[in-house]
Amino acid sequence: QVQLVQSGGGLVQPGGSLRLTCVGSGIRINVIGNGMGWYRQAPGKQRELVAGFARDGRAVYADSVKGRSTITDAENTVYLQVDSLKPGDTAVYYCSYLDYWGQGTQVTVSS
Asked: Quick one: which of 23, 55, 64, 105 could link to 9 by a disulfide (CB 3.0–4.6 Å)?
């Protein structure tokens, strides 16, 4: 059974950081040439790409997190680090690989 298992997130104060983890189970994650990314969906909004890997393996970022976010991969795991968090970063975050999605992780940025 293929699963993407997420961890991390929760309640974070503005200006803080978060690190989300996505572990592939039953599947080998190869970020080069395949669709691998982190998405988020805020209430009342469409799901949007936060960060991902282009076909050549380069990391790409949404303008809203560029310069304060890092996506990395290692050992069948993909990480998303977001710094200098803002209330606008509040959303449910999902990792996605090929046709598979993680279970979603709530991130709330609030004091």
From this structure: 105
CA angle 70, 36, 103 (to 5 degrees): 95
In degrees, to the nearest 5, what angle opens at C-alpha 15 toward C-alphas 23 and 5?
10
For 3-34, give one letter per residue: b (16+ CB within 10 A) or e. ebebeebeebeeeeebebbbbbeeeebebeee
Lookup: tokens for 19: 């690190």
Rg of the chain over Cα atoms, rounded to whole angstroms, equals 13
pLDDT band at 57, cuts 50/70/90?
confident
Mean local confidence (pLDDT), 12-21: 97
Residues 6 or more apart in contact with residue 59 via CB below 8 angstroms: 51, 52, 53, 70, 71, 72
